[in-house]
Amino acid sequence: MARGIDIYRYQTVNDWNAVRNAGVQFIWVKLTDGKGPAIVKGDNQVRGAKSVGIPIGGYHFAQHGDPVQQARVFLGELNRLGAWGIIPALDIENSGVLWTGQQAHDFSVGFLTELRRFVPRVALYANTSELRAMRAAEICAKVPGTFVWEANYGPNNGRMNTLPSNAWNKYRCAWQFTSVGRVPGIIENTDINESYMDLRLEAEADMEWNDVETHGRTGLKMAVGDFIGEIKNDTSVLIKMAQAQDAVINKLVDLVAADDVTADEMKVIIREAMAEVVTVDVRVTGPAPS
Would you say 110 and 74 are in contact if contact means Cβ atoms under 8 Å apart? Predict the structure, then answer.
């Protein structure tokens, strides 16, 4: 288990080294809201966390509307900032937005399914009663790779109390246990979380990707490394190039052995063959989402 925080414009960080030295091991920051970026973009928080080596990821605050469209907005911002330190999260709650349990369920399935096309694990955030209403365990079963980030404060006294057992127990990835935590280096009260798994996307368990079709993590304004998607693409390209080069070498060997080629003819053959190798289709990618 590791201790982490989630922050937004309500938290003023004045000493990132102090945050790290206080034992903060991961951070979620709000990056998007509905159809666009958050009112205050996450640039400063992402930059600050990275400067002291704290893995940082983003969360999206859900609004009524198209879940796929909102997921793509979120993915674009994650890419722009390179905020892939920990698994990305969907925040869906009755705070300024009213959801029925079924509405929250359907939106979450749509959003997380789209997100899972590009990342190996994702998180669903809500408080215990909201998770129960939206049938969070069913969402996790429908969208494999989804885990629950649960808010439950108890008396909200800044300490971990008791987290009740629920249907989504086996899917829990983190527990937000207070909203009045105090963290050195942050002026205001801060949400404090305890993780139940390694949330980092660089963890060894995430090196097996599913259905990597697009070049890069999302194909949406790529700004970060491709990880296994890059390796998969590059490997297939190299195999094709090696096969083409083998064909060239075999042809030249046969001609030389037969003493049936002049030096000038060999140059022409090599130029033509290399042109064929270069035109091997290196775009082993699927179409980027529109």
Answer: no
Is residue 62 classed exposed, middle or buried when 0-12, 13-18 and 19+ CB atoms within 10 A define those classes? buried
Instruction: Please tell me the chain's helix, strand, coil percentages from 3-state DSSP, rounded to the nearest 5.
Output: 40, 20, 40
* CA pair distance 30, 233, nearest whole angstrom: 32
Indicate whether 223 pLDDT > 60: no
DSSP string across 250-272 = HHHHHHHHTT---HHHHHHHHHH
- The string of pLDDT tens digits covering residues 103-159 is 999 999 999 999 999 999 999 999 999 999 999 999 999 999 999 999 999 999 999
The CATH class of 3-206 is: alpha beta
Domain boundaries, the chain: 3-206, 227-278
CB 122 within 8 A of CB 116: yes
Structure tokens at 268: 């022409």
SS3 at position 221: coil
